[in-house]
Amino acid sequence: MRAFAFISMALFAASAAADDPFELTTREGRFSAAFPADPVKTTNEVTLKSGSKTAIVRYAAVHKKAEYGIAFNDYPKGTLAAKAQDVLKGVRDGNIGDGSLDEEKTGVFGARKLPMRSFTYTRDKLHYRNLIVLDDHRLYQAMIAAESEDRLTDETAEAFYKAFKIAGDPPPIVKKDKDGNFVSRAGRYSVAFPDTPKAQTSEVPLMGTDKKITVHNQVVEVGKTAALIVAFNDYPVGVLSPDAQDTLQGVRDGNMAPNGKLLEESKGTFGPKKLPMREITFTKGNIHFRSRIILDGTRLYQVMIVAEDAKTLTNDAAKKYLDSFKILPVDD
Predict the structure, then answer these.
(1) CA-CA distance, 169 to 176, in Å (whole number)?
(2) For the chain, percent of residues with pLDDT exceeding 90
(3) Is 297 left (phi over 0), alpha (psi -120 to 50) or beta?
(4) pLDDT of 170 higher than 80
(5) Position 177 pLDDT exceeds 90
(6) Residue intervals in the chain for CATH 3.40.1000.10
(7) What integer pLDDT is reported at residue 332 of this predicted model?
């Protein structure tokens, strides 16, 4: 079984003309942004309530009596609350301190629908706007601080927040639930992998369009002859067929192309939300495939087994793995 390669992002900082925003893309931080002035990078180590330490990396720029900053840090294993919004609420409370909360909303961020909280507050005669996002065990904060409250929502502020993007490659799965299943916050799923998975990301053309989609895989190789793979991707708005089973059939055909042979197929639903699902087995040459394909809105999940021996697709370990897969609520 071939090894699964990792795709890395290029690291660059784009220079800009005097009147243009200062663009930044960082491999370390896995984000891109556009500041109204040249940002300065600082790193500060802080102690968490648990006693563990984390390094906060921050890029900040001052422009017309306002500060624009983007910070990120990684939490150690076992220090996060079970629910992402509880984590974000704790970050919010730590930021506000003895200040006063003005406005707040919770939701999701970006195509991967990462848990998010945005809020404004006042402290020590300064006005703050903060967007906080949790990507697995990594926290992002995009912040503005200003003397004038109007600066939090002016054209420069809106351009700053619009430009902030988190890279599509989710971090490795590092968390297990109470049952010992691996949990992906980025993918919003849990599954019983027999070992810690490795992340792989690929960009593939979307058939019939000029668009591309990013497919996020978590892979566990089983010996030298099999692999377990959970993949997900988000489709752009407006490209899916109104009939979910048509979409799943297209995924099936794409997986088997160009010379796969379909052996078995069943249609049905998945989970308490009764999401549309197809289960297929097929061969390509001497390799055997079994896959559950599930469509949750515009997000596609594929739970796969790839093996040289056909019996690997149907043994007790295969059943345990396939049946363990769960799609989690957005808040988890």
Answers:
(1) 20
(2) 64
(3) left
(4) no
(5) no
(6) 22-166, 175-327
(7) 40
Q: What is the 3-state secondary structure (H, E, C) of 69-106?
A: EEEEEECCCCCCCCCHHHHHHHHHHHHHCCCEEEEEEE
**Tens-place pLDDT, residues 212-271:** 788 888 999 998 899 999 999 988 878 888 999 999 999 999 999 888 999 999 999 999
CA–CA dist 33, 203 (Å, integer): 21
Structure tokens at 243: 């009939």
Cα(98)–Cα(291) distance, integer angstroms:
53
Domain 22-166, CATH class in plain words:
alpha beta
Q: Is residue 48 over pLDDT 90?
A: no
Fold of the domain built from segment(s) 175-327: Protein Transport Mog1p; Chain A (3.40.1000)
pLDDT in tens, 260-301: 999 999 999 999 999 999 999 999 999 999 999 999 999 999
Cβ neighbours for 318, distance < 8 A, ≥ 6 positions apart? 290, 305, 312
What span, in angstroms and rounded, lies between the C-alpha atoms of 264 and 97? 59
What mean pLDDT do residues 33-44 have?
92
Burial 63-90 (b: 16+ CB within 10 A, else e): beebbbbbbbbbbeeeebeeebbebbbe
**Is residue 6 over pLDDT 50?**
no
